[in-house]
């Protein structure tokens, strides 16, 4: 199972939120590049980055910092937040991102997913399925689309999507453990490679997700809070390719 230690960017700072609530934003690290290098030193091969300003209002003020990580950290970057147009897809793809994660636009502009798949191929594209109480949320998790999460994931698979980043917003940043039941239900519904996001707190969580056969797991607040040793988690997760 691949581990994706996470950096969320807002106003040029490395931050974390609770349940996606922007009022809970707090800085957790100074330099995204130095943080990424620490991830690499622990054995990670991928990093999950989110441009929170891009997700909320479409502004790419964090892109210079993200590009620096892409170009110099030695890690493959899984990038989400603010990929809303064909120009955004091309900007991210052209910057050398390892995989782009299309979130809200997959709901509001389904054709954008098709465009990204045609231009960059299914290995370079993921769809973010961000859920609260079983419904897909958009616009930086602030709006309820009314769509059922499992139905939406199945629709994305029909389009040719092979990677899904599944976030249970209720667990994100709460250090409360992942939503194992929801992840199991998603595994039964789709054959996509699933990345679990939200609530990963302990080494036991990592082991359980690995044993479920998930493709990947995002580690965010647990790293910064010290509840998970990333080096140890990488060893338990297995080969990072």
Written description of the protein model:
It is a single chain. This protein has 241 residues and is α/β, with parallel strands linked by helices. It has a single domain, classed as Alpha-Beta Barrel (TIM Barrel), CATH 3.20.20. 39% of the residues lie in helices and 30% in strands. The longest helix is centred in the middle third of the chain and has 11 residues, at 110-120. It starts with a strand and ends with a helix. The model has no long low-confidence stretch (mean pLDDT 90).
Task: Chart the SSEs and their pairings.
Elements (H helix, E strand, L loop, with lengths): L1 E9 L2 E6 L2 E9 L2 H10 L4 E6 H6 L5 H10 L3 E5 L5 H9 L4 E4 L1 H5 L1 H11 L4 E8 L2 E4 L4 E6 H11 L3 E6 L11 H10 L3 E5 L5 H10 L3 E4 L1 H5 L4 H8 L4
Parallel strand pairs: 1-4, 1-12, 4-5, 5-6, 6-7, 7-10, 10-11, 11-12
Antiparallel strand pairs: 1-2, 2-3, 7-8, 8-9
Helix pairs in contact: 4-6, 9-11
What order do the helices and strands follow? EEEHEHHEHEHHEEEHEHEHEHH
- Overall radius of gyration: 16 Å
Total helices: the number is 11
Average of the residue pLDDT scores: 90
- Number of structural domains: 1
Note poorly predicted spans.
none
Roughly how many Å apart are the termini? 9 Å
CATH superfamily: Aldolase class I
Helix and strand content put the structural class at alpha/beta
Annotated CATH topology: TIM Barrel
Summarize the biggest pleated sheet: 8 strands, parallel, barrel
* Helix share bin: 25-40%
Kindly state the number of beta strands: 12
Strand % is 25-35%
CATH architecture: Alpha-Beta Barrel
What's the CATH class, please?
A: Alpha Beta
**Largest beta sheet: strand ordering:** 1-4-5-6-7-10-11-12
**Anisotropy-based shape:** globular
């Amino acid at each position: 199972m691949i581990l994706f230690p996470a950096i969320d960017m807002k106003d040029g700072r490395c931050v974390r939120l609770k349940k996606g609530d922007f009022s809970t934003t707090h800085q957790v690290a100074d330099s995204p590049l130095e943080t990424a290098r620490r991830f690499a030193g622990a054995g990670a091969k991928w990093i999950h980055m989110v441009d929170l300003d891009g997700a909320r209002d479409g502004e790419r003020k964090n892109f210079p910092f993200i590009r620096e990580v892409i170009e110099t950290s030695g890690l493959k970057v899984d990038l989400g937040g603010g990929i809303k147009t064909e120009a955004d897809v091309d900007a991210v793809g052209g910057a050398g991102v390892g995989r782009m994660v299309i979130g809200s636009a997959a709901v509001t502009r389904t054709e954008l997913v098709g465009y990204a798949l045609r231009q960059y191929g299914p290995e370079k594209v993921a769809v973010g399925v961000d859920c609260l109480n079983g419904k897909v949320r958009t616009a930086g998790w602030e709006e309820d689309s009314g769509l059922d999460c499992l139905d939406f994931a199945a629709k994305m698979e029909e389009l040719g999507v092979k990677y899904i980043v599944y976030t249970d917003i209720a667990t994100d940043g709460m250090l409360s453990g992942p939503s194992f039941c929801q992840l199991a239900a998603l595994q039964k519904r789709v054959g996509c490679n699933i990345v679990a996001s939200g609530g990963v707190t302990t080494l036991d969580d990592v082991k359980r997700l690995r044993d479920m056969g998930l493709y990947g797991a995002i580690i965010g607040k647990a790293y910064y809070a010290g509840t998970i040793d990333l080096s140890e988690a990488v060893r338990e997760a297995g080969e990072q390719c």
